Request: fold
Amino acid sequence: MGGYASKRTVEQISQAAMRGIDLVAFWQAARAAIRDAVPHYITPCWYTLDPASLLVTSHYDHGLIPQLPHDWLAHEYQREDYHKLADVARSERGISTLHELTGGDPARSPHWNTYVRPIGGEQQLYLALRTRSGENWGILALYREPGQPMFTRAEFELLRELAPHLAEGARRALLIGAAADPEGPEAPGLVVLDESWQVQSLTPGVERWLERLPGDWTPGGQLPQAVIAVAARALQTAGPDHPGEVALARVLSRDGRWIVLHGATLLSDGVPRAAVILEPAHPARISPLLMSAYTLTEREQDLTRHVLCGESTAEIAAALCISAHTVQQHLKSIFEKTGVRSRRDLVGKIFFAHYEPRLRDNEQRAILGRPLRDGPQ
Reply:
């Protein structure tokens, strides 16, 4: 593929990421953009991951398999194999193929024999959807059938260039979806402004966030200065042919809590508008879940998150500045509290208890045309 065509593919996905569309619509736009750029078999498969745990929160493959089989999930989280989603997500390169990992013999993988070959596939490529700041929001899976050329270095380079745009589009689509269809009092809120700073729309419940920001805001009155500032920064970076960058701000609320504001330009109808998403600056959602469900201490919660991401004892010890022996002592306590015997059992238990319900809910939401959600349930 030529340089112009590759650049056009990047631009198409970058622009789709900034349109303020829901996640399924974004995946559809991305599918169309990469169809000719990176030829593949049947359809892409998209997975969203919880950045805090790298566990799957949604799956979408344009109607090919509306619901992932339970045994597929059990294989991913409870059995040894090559090419696991979390392993690719946390790898330095962020992209790999099953042929690479098996020395050119994918039949060495039980997953390939059970799930890839029966549907006519041969090659399997995973791309980590990682933002420029390092957060993993998903995985793109592409396949090729027997007799097709191997994925090339140029295709790898293009996909790696696309990855942060795909990650940003997924992150924003999940935030906007959560704001448009709130789930509980801590759901994000969305404000859309025109170029004159006039409010075009407010999502249900956003008032509670606006009221907490510094300044005197009343419904129908001028917005808090923090909202205007973030919207202005987003619009300043936009141009006639590109949507600009995401502006971020972290503001201390009146009740002493931190609120994060995400500002972005929307170009869905050719007229620039500013969208500002407000949400609480809370620790990873897995933390309160682990505390309430299993009474893990703060350090045990930290350690569990590293285990869920597939890190080794040495990596956990280095990340938490503790000894390998202390890691093992904490693991022993975690295993006792959660009723498991191994790290793999721990990952499986947390996924099936708290993430599979979210995955199944999102599968139904995709079918019904409702916004998809992130994080555990």
Observations:
- The chain has 14 helices and ten strands.
